[in-house]
Amino acid sequence: MSSIMIKFPYGIMDFDKIITEAYFYQDRTAFIEKCENSNSTLFCVRPRRMGKTLWLDTLASYYDILKKNRFEDLFGNLYIGKHPTPRRNSYLILRLDFSKIQPGKTVEEIESSFNDYIYRTIKKFSEDYRDFIES
After folding, report:
1. Residues 68, 89: contact at Cβ < 8 Å?
2. Cβ(122)–Cβ(128) under 8 Å?
3. Where are the beta strands (DSSP E) in 13-116?
4. What is d(CA 79, CA 100) in angstroms, rounded to the nearest whole number?
5. Which of 27, 78, 91, 104 could lock onto 110 through a cystine, CB 3.0 to 4.6 A?
6. C-alpha 74: how far from its chain's center?
7. Calpha distance 62→74 (Å, rounded)
8. Under 8 Å between Cβ of 31 and 45
9. 11 to each of 4, 14, 95, 127, how far by Cα in Å?
10. Is 12 in contact with 57 (CB distance < 8 Å)?
11. Neighbouring residues of 36: CB distance < 8 A, sequence distance ≥ 6
12. Cα(55)–Cα(35) distance, integer angstroms
């Protein structure tokens, strides 16, 4: 009798890693299609540790033009891979994660940390998407 060990991605918020390293993934990608077809503004409210960051990372992977060549690897076995929308891999993705800003003791320290984070993020964005920005 053989047993299969299921890897659960506790604390992992990286969609790419979850898929490529064969972690358990509850496929909720049908919501991408529903979101695109909705005429409403969407607001995601969920308790802590309920998948908000992973969902944003999933959306970023789905819409990121840089991941166009990896679409089948990442989404091929999921609902949205079998039912892709016209907008897939069509956008330049600017990710802002304000948890990366270091808390400071003064307003000036917080402002400096914020400015440094924004500068590094914009710089990386412009490097990653250079071919699309310059054309």
Report:
1. yes
2. no
3. none
4. 32
5. 104
6. 12
7. 9
8. no
9. 21, 9, 19, 29
10. no
11. 85, 87
12. 12
What are the structure tokens assigned to 77, written together?
Answer: 């076995």
Helix/strand/coil (H/E/C) assignment for every residue in 4-27: CCCCCCCCCCCHHHHHHCCCCCCC
Element (H, E) at 115: helix 107-128
Tell me the CA distances in angstroms from 100 to 6, 73, 96, 108, 124, one per residue in order: 31, 29, 9, 17, 15
Tokens 């999921």 identify what position? 78
pLDDT tens, position by position, for the chain (135 residues)? 567 788 888 888 899 999 999 899 999 999 999 989 888 887 777 777 777 889 999 999 999 999 999 999 999 999 999 999 999 999 999 999 988 888 888 999 999 999 999 999 999 999 999 999 986
CA distance 85 to 34: 10
Separation CA 115–CA 117 (nearest Å): 5
